[in-house]
Structures are given as C-alpha cells and as structure tokens.
Design goal:
Shape: globular
Number of helices: 23
Radius of gyration: 27 Å
Structural class: alpha/beta
Length: about 525
C-alpha cells in the first residue's frame, strides 16, 4: 500500500532588514525553495506610511510574485522600536548639557511654538505696514510690536540654545563611547553578566515583540536567522515551540561587523554568548571567520561557508536578462555609451572610502560616478554630494536607489568599472563583500583598495587594479589603467571557472547540506 508523501518541511528566513534590498535573504530563500522546502521570508516593513493593512496589523504578507523569489512567501513586519527609541527620546543631558530639553516631545513642541510665533510676528509687522491707523494709535501699536519682537528674539535664541544641547545629547546617546558611557557599560556587564544585552541593546527586545508572534504562528521546522540581532528571537521561538511538542532547528547566519560603539559591541558579545550554545548550525561567509567563530564560541563543528554571490548565468543569457529587466545604470544616469562610468553598489559611510572617489573626479575629467545606495536620502550621501558641489563635479555624480537583488548584475553591467575603495579596518579584512561578486557577475573590471581580502583575488585573477587606501592620486592611476584597456580586465572572467565558483549555485551547496542534516533527506 502506497504511503502519502511527507509534507514539505517549513523554513523561515528571519532578517532584521528591509527585504526589498536584502540579497542574502533572497538567495537563501531561493535556494531552499528550489530544494523543495516551503519557505517564508520575514523582515522589516519598508519605512514610510505603508498601506492601511500594515498599519492595522503590523505585517504585510505577499505570497510569491513581486519582489519575492519564486515560490517563496514574504512577510514584512513593522518594528516600531519603542524600547530602543526611548533611549534617544529622553537623553540624559548631564552637567555639560544642563539646558537641553528632557524629551523629544518638549523639543518638538518648543520648536513648533517658535515657528508659529515667527509667523505671527511677521504677520503683525505686515498688518502695521498695510492697515491705516491714526498716527498716535499706530505709534503705540509699533511700540508694543517692538517689545513683542524683542521678546520673540529672546525666546527664539533660548529655544535654539536648548535645542542644540538636546541634539548634542541625542548624538551622544546614539554613539555612547565617552568615558562615562564606557564605565556604565562595564558596570552593567559586571552586574548582569550575559543578560546585560537586555539593558544595553533594547532593540533586541523590540525585534522579539515584532517577530516572535509571527514565528509562533508559522511553526516552522527550521529558522534561518540572518545577523546577530535575530539570533535570540529565533532561539526563543524554537524553545516556545518545543514546549508544545514541535521541534524547531535554528541556523545562525553571521558575518563580521564593526559595531558603532563599545556599548553595542558588549551587547552583541553578551547576546551571542547567551544563545549560540542553543543553536543547531552556523553559516558564515568566509573560511577565516568560520575558524574564528568556532574558536570563540567553542563550536563542535566548523561553520558552513556560503559566500553571498549571485547565481551564475552564461554570458549570452546574462546579456539577455539585463536587457529584458529594467534599464541599466548607464540609462538611469542618462549617459551615452562612450562616456566612462564607474559604479559603487552598497551602503555608504566614512569607512567605505567614497570620499576618495569624489576627490578623484576633478582629476578624471569626463568620468562619471554612480552610487547605487539603499537610501538616497541618507545623511552621508549628502556629505558626498556637498563635497562634489564644492569641487564643481556635482553634475558627474549620480545617486540611484537599489534594484531588486536578482537584477543587480544586469543593472550594473553597463558601467565601465566597479569600485571598492574601503579603508583598512578589521571588519573589512574578513570576507569578500557581496558587491565584489556582483561586479564580477556583471563582468566589470574592478578598482579596489589594498585591503588584503580584496587585493589578493584581484591580483590573482587580473580582473582589476589595486590602489593604496585613502590615496586619491593612486586611485586616479588605477582608474586610468583600467579605462585604457578595459577588455584586458573583462577577459579575466573568461579564464577558468572563477564565476562558477563565485556563484550561488556553488556557494549554497554547504547550506543545503546543513539543512539536510538537520531536517532529514528531502
């Protein structure tokens, strides 16, 4: 008698990010779905007003289609960050900022009050100029209005002073790295031990509030937790499920990351040490970091390594997919084919080295630069555009939003160079970033800084040039060398099986093997 086929095992991919631009979440989900698992991606709802459904239920669910990989369900969850924002909304000014407003509500109210009274004073001035009155009455009115203007000027100056101190206090709370902050962090760690993460990083509890009920409802057989912030949420959901008799495996997918402050680094360390002993498998993006994780957490087995590379496409199909998808980066910049164009894809920040690119534009004449960033309104994007304006090259700098992960190589392919001018920092020395692989699959020559993990493959393969980090003149030299003979660097991708090795088809194999060991044969 034939037995009924076993239902597909359910996998939840949990990400603390907006899913529209999380390539790792998309690729993991696509690989699992192709292997026959029932896959759901859970991530943050995009910031903004959203749909009424999202506002009412705090999640928005899209089954298949759209931006989700084929056959994958997507759940976007609003994360209000109530606990995390409390720290910033009510900063502790201390003696140095004793006049600062004590809350975000007071700060917003007083500034709105000043703006309203500025309008009233201006309107009253216009009224006195326009409406005719007898001279004695007008003189008395102007005298009274002069007093009101003086009072308003004092109020505005006082509000500006308190507002400046409030903003400074918020900035200090956002990046708590002063001596007192470090002493407070150390005291909290000594007092609470591994549980100190609850006080040092309340955002981890905000994620529990948002994602926990969704995982409890899904009842997956495996949770793939992306990044260190989702680790605790995944483990706690597994424990709750096992309390009801439902076994849940937890796979933690992590990479090296430089935390913005000592407080954040201590919270991350405590959070990981609390929950890593309870997980069932670890995945990372580089062999060196896998060894580091095993030693640091005393793991029984070496973590699986799956680089975040795009899927491989043959040159002909890659070109056709690029033309059949949305227009490329060159079209978005409105540039003719003969205009040289370099591109940087990824988040921006001081350590990314993009100021080197901006400083080089005046020396590269007709070269244009495109920055494909997650948020074109980011504060550091404004720093870059302001610097370009100071140098008179703002017309040659283009800022573009992200495209769906599946379209990235095709979107970038119309550029001439892909750049990675990152600084030599510890977190940059661990693994090749995803955008290096995306440049490779777009068959772009690359110009990279002399960070070892970037320079070594570039020199071995011959797909680009290496320059000294922070050295604008050397960056100009490297870009000029590539533009002189771009075909030489593009041909490097045709030698050997480099692109097949750097493909998601190859890199996802250890991940799927781990799934098989944990969930049984498919």
């Amino acid at each position: 008698m034939a037995t009924a086929p076993r239902p597909a095992r359910r996998i939840a991919v949990l990400a603390d990010s907006a899913l529209e631009r999380d390539s790792r979440a998309h690729r993991v989900a696509a690989a699992a779905a192709e292997a026959g698992y029932e896959v759901t991606i859970i991530g943050r709802a995009a910031e903004g007003p959203g749909c009424q459904d999202c506002q009412d239920r705090q999640d928005c669910r899209v089954d298949g289609g759209g931006i989700a990989p084929e056959g994958v369900r997507m759940i976007r969850v609003a994360v209000p960050e109530t606990l995390h924002r409390r720290r910033l909304q009510r900063p502790r000014p201390g003696l140095l900022r004793a006049l600062a407003y004590r809350s975000a509500e007071s700060y917003a109210y007083r500034n709105a009050f000043v703006v309203a009274h500025t309008a009233l004073v201006a309107s009253r001035q216009a009224e006195l100029d326009v409406i005719h009155r007898p001279l004695p009455v007008k003189a008395a009115a102007r005298l009274g209005h002069g007093g009101a203007r003086v009072q308003h000027a004092v109020r505005r100056a006082w509000t500006a002073l308190r507002s400046a101190q409030y903003r400074a206090a918020v900035r200090r709370r956002a990046t708590p790295d002063g001596l007192l902050d470090r002493l407070s962090t150390t005291s909290t760690r000594l007092l609470f031990g591994k549980r100190c993460w609850r006080r040092l990083d309340p955002l981890l509890l905000d994620l529990e509030i948002a994602y926990g009920p969704v995982l409890d409802e899904l009842r997956p057989h495996l949770v793939h937790a992306l990044g260190h912030r989702t680790l605790g949420t995944a483990v706690r959901a597994a424990l709750r499920a096992e309390g009801t008799g439902h076994r849940v495996e937890v796979v933690w997918d992590t990479t090296a990351k430089t935390e913005p402050s000592h407080r954040a680094a201590v919270a991350r360390d405590a959070h990981e040490r609390t929950y890593v002993p309870l997980i069932d498998g670890v995945v990372t993006v580089a062999e060196t970091y896998a060894d580091r994780l095993r030693e640091r957490h005393g793991l029984a087995a070496r973590p699986a390594v799956a680089r975040n590379a795009p899927p491989y496409e043959a040159p002909s199909s890659s070109a056709s997919s690029a033309s059949s998808s949305r227009s490329g980066v060159r079209d978005h910049c409105h540039l003719a084919p003969e205009v040289p164009l370099l591109v940087h894809s990824g988040a921006v920040g001081p350590a990314r080295g993009l100021l080197t690119v901006i400083e080089a534009l005046p020396k590269l004449y007709d070269l244009h630069a495109a920055l494909v960033v997650p948020d074109p309104g980011d504060a550091y994007v404004r720093v870059l555009t302001d610097r370009a304006a100071e140098l008179g090259v703002e017309g040659r700098l283009h800022v573009l939003p992200y495209v769906p992960p599946a379209e990235i190589p095709g979107f970038l392919a119309s550029a001439d160079i892909g750049v990675l001018p990152v600084h030599r920092l510890p977190a940059q020395q661990v693994a090749l970033p995803a955008r290096y692989f995306e440049y490779a699959h777009a068959r772009l020559p690359v110009v990279v800084s002399d960070v070892r993990v970037l320079a070594r493959p570039t020199l071995e393969i011959g797909n680009g040039e290496v320059f000294r980090s922070l050295d604008t003149a050397d960056f100009v030299r490297a870009v000029g060398a590539v533009l002189t003979n771009p075909r030489r660097y593009r041909k490097a991708y045709d030698r050997g099986d480099t692109l097949r090795e750097w493909s998601w088809q190859t890199q996802s194999a250890p991940l799927l093997d781990l799934y098989s060991r944990l969930l049984g044969p498919r």
